[in-house]
Amino acid sequence: MFLRFPHLAALLRRPPAASYAARLQHQRAEANTTRLAAKGLQHALALGNDEAMRVAGAAQAAYRQLCAQSSPGSAPQALLRTLSDRLAQHSCLLALPYSLPGLRLLRQLAASGLRIVVVTTPVVEQVLAEIGLPADRLASVGTNHVVRMIKAGTPQPTLYISFPELHAGSDGTRTWVSFNGMRHAVSLLEPLLCCLGLEALYTLTPAEEPELTILRLTPLKPRDASLTISSVTSWLTLHLQAAASALPAQTLSWSQLYRASAPYLQVERDDQLKQLNAYIDAWHRHGNGLDGGACAAARARLAAWAAQPVAPAHHGAGLPSRG
Question: What is the model's pTM?
Answer without folding.
Answer: 0.82
